[in-house]
Every structure is written in C-alpha cells, then in structure tokens.
Design goal:
CDC123, 37% helix, alpha+beta, 10 strands, binds magnesium ion, Translation initiation factor eIF2 assembly protein, binds adenosine-5'-triphosphate, three-stranded antiparallel sheet, 317 residues
Length: 317
C-alpha cells in the first residue's frame, strides 16, 4: 500500500466527491494545541487533599464554540472521527456506551481513550511500503450527523482496479437471517450503487468502501478506507484479496455475471466475540469510572486507604 492511497482516503478528500450519497458531516481543522492535548496523557492531577481527586483540563473556548455550532447544525448529536478513524474501540468509556456526542468534552473523552485515534495522530502510514517521506497531514475533526444504523445493514466492499471484487458483512460476529434470505438482492443493490455513484469517481482504483442498506433498500456510503492491511479485511484475508487468485469455488459463475464474492455469517454457531473486546477494561473499572456502583467505589477507596496505611506502618518499622 502506498502513502498516497492513505492520503486519498482522508475524510476531507472523499467527502466532497460523494457528499450526496453519505451522511451529512462537517469538518473542522484541529488547532495544534488541541492535537497536543489529545496526545498528552498527563492531565489527571491528584490534589493535596488526599480524599479528593481533581482533573485539570485545558480549555479551548474558540474551538469549543465552533464545535458547538457544528453540532447544532447537525441537529445536536454527532458521531466524531479524525481524518480516517473513529474512536470505536473506546465506546466502553462513554456514560451511554455509545459514540454519540453532544459536546467537545464528550469527543475528547472518546478520543483520549482510543488507540485508533492515537494511531491516526502518530502512525498514519504504518502499513505503507514506499520509502518516500511521510506527506504532511492537516488534522481535522469530522462531525457526522448521528444516524441509528442497524449493524445487519452494514457491508464492506473491496474495490480492486476499479472493480468491486468482494463484499463482506461488516458485523460478522452476528448472524442476520435477512442477509442469507436476501443475498442476491443485497448484492445487486450494492453493485448498482457502486456502478452508478462510485466507480471511476475516486482518486484511486484500489480502495475499500463501507456501505449501509437502509430499511427501504437504499444504499448509502459510510466510509472509504485504504486497500491494505490497515483496513480490517473481515470475512476475507488480505492475501486472498491481493493475490489475484479466485476468491470463490464457483468463480466462473461470478466472473460471467461480473458479480463480487459475497461473504456473510451463515449460522448462529459461528457467532464470535466482539472484535473490540480486547480494548475494554474489566467491568469493575467501568463501574468505578461511571459511578454506576457506588459501593464498589467506596470499597476501592477503602482498599487504597488500607494499602497506604500498611505501607506507612512498614516504613515506620
Ligand atoms: N453518523 C453515524 N451515526 C451513528 N453511527 C455511525 C455513524 N457513522 C458510522 N457509525 C457507526 O460506527 C461504525 C464505525 O464507523 P466508521 O466506519 O466511520 O469508523 P472507522 O473508524 O472508519 O471504522 P474502520 O476502522 O472499521 O474503518 C460504523 O460501522 C457504524 O456502525
Ligand atoms: Mg473506516
């Protein structure tokens, strides 16, 4: 994968091209001091008074005003992203366990807890294999109008040399009966959408397209991603997608009809744990951080106090 492919997949590059086929969004340049704040993990400060903890967070009044204005223009609830990624590995930290935000502080909490956001900021070209110097990146906060997407309607499409070669169910950890019963209809609708609105219109000929089919059957563009390892290949492997070999046993059939290979989870037996599970912290810490279980918090503080007292007596001895 080339650095240029990654540059081309930035939100502010593809959004103007496909604006009419995706969720309404606003893009705000990220001021340098906000980037520094996002990368700084030393903002939690314990006060002198041992019983209270205070958090000092810098304020960004001008940026905050712009963000609030944008959120209002998008009807008050947004889904936040940086140039490429959303903080989808951090939803556990939000009070509502969702990526829905109504304020800048909610966006900050998610961004600061997300490895994917840190990767965007520090290693955007991690899987690129060209030796050229890294292109300069203008970081941006993307705010997208909040839309309740049903996971069973989401699909990831792999486009190679401007051909749609493969489609995978996006939420492959679940079995959705409507996908198996409507396999052909879904595949045809996505292919039609691709041909009419996407094919030959993007800057690259290799890319990965995320789409959503709504309850009326209409297909929408959700995101564009680089064609390479940095993007999850879901029910395919990158080896399969790049080798040029057949993706399917009945390739002759598919090739004749110019049909992409369509993969989805076929039975409940294959249901797997959520892929973001490893990013979560133990339930106890979630309860503590959200105050959902106050007794647990009291226990935790007692434990800390006891520990401190033990240490003090040890020192005295
Ligand atoms: N505007 C929105 N409102 C509500 N939920 C959304 C919105 N946009 C995306 N989502 C949900 O969040 C998920 C991740 O969104 P998106 O694909 O933009 O993130 P990403 O970080 O680029 O993901 P990936 O790393 O898989 O490419 C989507 O699969 C969808 O379920
Ligand atoms: Mg993406």
């Amino acid at each position: 994968m080339k650095k240029e492919q990654v540059v081309n997949c930035q939100f502010s590059v593809w959004y103007p091209i496909f604006k009419n086929h995706t969720i309404k969004s606003l893009i705000l340049p990220l001021p340098p001091n906000v980037i520094d704040y996002l990368l700084d993990d030393g903002t939690l400060v314990w006060s002198d008074d041992e019983s209270t903890a205070t958090v000092t967070a810098p304020e960004f009044p001008e940026f905050n005003a712009k963000v609030l204005e944008a959120i209002n223009a998008l009807d008050g609830h947004v889904f936040p992203k940086l140039n490429w990624s959303s903080p989808r590995d951090a939803n556990w930290i939000a009070l509502n366990s969702s990526l829905q935000c109504c304020s800048l502080s909610e966006v900050f909490l998610l961004f600061k807890s997300s490895d994917f956001i840190t990767r965007d900021l520090t290693q955007p070209f991690i899987h690129c294999n060209d030796d050229s110097p890294d292109p300069a990146i203008q970081y941006e906060l993307v705010l997208r109008k909040w839309s309740e997407l049903i996971p069973g309607g989401e699909f990831r499409c792999f486009v190679k040399e401007n051909k749609l070669i493969a489609i995978s169910q996006r939420d492959y950890t679940q079995y959705y009966s409507h996908i198996s019963s409507q396999e052909d209809i879904i595949c045809q609708a996505i292919l039609k959408f691709f041909r009419e609105h996407i094919q030959y219109k993007f800057l690259d000929e290799d890319f990965v397209l995320d789409v959503y089919q709504d309850s009326q059957g209409r297909v929408w563009l959700i995101d564009l991603n680089p064609f390479g390892k940095v993007t999850d290949s879901l029910l395919f492997t990158w080896e399969e997608l790049t080798s040029g070999n057949s993706l399917t046993a009945n390739q002759a059939d598919n090739a004749q009809q110019e049909r992409p290979e369509f993969r989805y989870t076929t039975s409940e037996v294959t249901v797997q744990p959520s892929p973001c599970l490893s990013y979560r912290i133990p339930r106890d810490f979630v309860d503590l951080s959200t105050g959902e279980d106050p007794y647990k918090l009291i226990d935790f503080l007692k434990l800390k106090k006891g520990q401190q007292e033990d240490e003090e007596t040890e020192e005295e001895v």
